[in-house]
């Protein structure tokens, strides 16, 4: 019996690509349900492009500054993804807000990792937000991308404790360690068809339980 076909995944980055690297490493396993076919950045100098190239992954840079507006950049981005035969898109520190048309075109096929336990602390500076709010648990979330920022249906989450004496940097270090564990697992859920987007919610398979949720307490 032949092995199931692996989903073709493109990873979008803007910087060093630490979450990208964790996904690339996971995808080396022969039974992983996704293969990384492209790493693309809106910043030609993104360090993650070098890391991906060293791993043997095709890379591409499309500088957003070369386009007159968000929509024309998104058209070029969409064309590059389709040229690579992309089936799923992973955002890994991609610091661009998409046009609604681009999001709709990839609805149910584009996921993101966000450094908070959504729906808490959307946007940026999430660790500062968590400390200011005085929460005792913080973490990260993998979710489907929808037009509203950081508001898509949740696929998986990982929680970390907020310790006495934490500052944004120490809390960020604890969260990023969980991000590196969570994102490959969440992508595997999506790529294998175990967490599809249906009717605006994630339709987990019956009996799947909390497989997509990791807690480190």
TrEMBL record:
Amino-acid positions noted as binding (6R)-10-formyltetrahydrofolate in the UniProt annotation, renumbered to this chain: 70, 112
Pathway noted in the entry: Purine metabolism; IMP biosynthesis via de novo pathway; N(2)-formyl-N(1)-(5-phospho-D-ribosyl)glycinamide from N(1)-(5-phospho-D-ribosyl)glycinamide (10-formyl THF route): step 1/1
Residues that bind N(1)-(5-phospho-beta-D-ribosyl)glycinamide: 17-19
Gene Ontology MF, one: phosphoribosylglycinamide formyltransferase activity
Domain Formyl transferase N-terminal per the UniProt entry, residue ranges: 7-187
Record site feature (Raises pKa of active site His), residues: 150
GO biological process terms, semicolon-separated: 'de novo' IMP biosynthetic process
Swiss-Prot/TrEMBL catalytic activity: N(1)-(5-phospho-beta-D-ribosyl)glycinamide + (6R)-10-formyltetrahydrofolate = N(2)-formyl-N(1)-(5-phospho-beta-D-ribosyl)glycinamide + (6S)-5,6,7,8-tetrahydrofolate + H(+)
Enzyme Commission code(s) on record: 2.1.2.2
Catalytic residues (UniProt): 114
Broad enzyme group: transferase
Swiss-Prot/TrEMBL keywords: Purine biosynthesis, Transferase
Pfam families to which the protein is assigned, alphabetical: Formyl_trans_N
GO cellular component: cytosol
Stored CDD domains: FMT_core_GART
Similarity remark: Belongs to the GART family.
Matching HAMAP family: PurN
Function: Catalyzes the transfer of a formyl group from 10-formyltetrahydrofolate to 5-phospho-ribosyl-glycinamide (GAR), producing 5-phospho-ribosyl-N-formylglycinamide (FGAR) and tetrahydrofolate.
Protein name listed in UniProt: Phosphoribosylglycinamide formyltransferase
Organism lineage string: Bacteria, Pseudomonadati, Pseudomonadota, Alphaproteobacteria, Hyphomicrobiales
Gene of this entry: purN
């Amino acid at each position: 019996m032949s092995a199931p076909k692996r989903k073709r995944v493109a990873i979008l980055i803007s910087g060093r690509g630490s979450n990208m690297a964790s996904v690339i490493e996971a995808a080396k396993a022969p039974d992983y349900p996704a293969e990384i076919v492209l790493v693309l950045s809106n910043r030609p100098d993104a360090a993650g492009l070098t890391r991906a190239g060293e791993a043997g992954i095709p890379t591409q840079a499309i500088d957003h500054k070369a386009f007159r507006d968000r929509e024309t950049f998104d058209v070029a981005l969409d064309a590059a993804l389709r040229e690579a035969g992309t089936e799923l898109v992973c955002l890994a520190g991609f610091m661009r807000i998409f046009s609604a048309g681009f999001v709709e075109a990839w609805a149910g096929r584009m996921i993101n990792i966000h450094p908070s336990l959504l729906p808490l602390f959307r946007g940026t500076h999430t660790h500062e937000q968590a400390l200011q709010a005085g929460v005792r648990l913080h973490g990260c979330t993998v979710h489907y991308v929808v037009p509203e920022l950081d508001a898509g249906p949740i696929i998986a989450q990982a929680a970390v404790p907020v310790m006495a004496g934490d500052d944004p940097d120490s809390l960020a270090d604890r969260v990023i360690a969980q991000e590196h564990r969570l994102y490959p697992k969440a992508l595997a859920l999506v790529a294998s068809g175990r967490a599809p987007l249906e009717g605006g919610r994630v339709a987990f398979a019956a009996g799947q339980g909390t497989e997509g949720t990791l807690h480190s307490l």
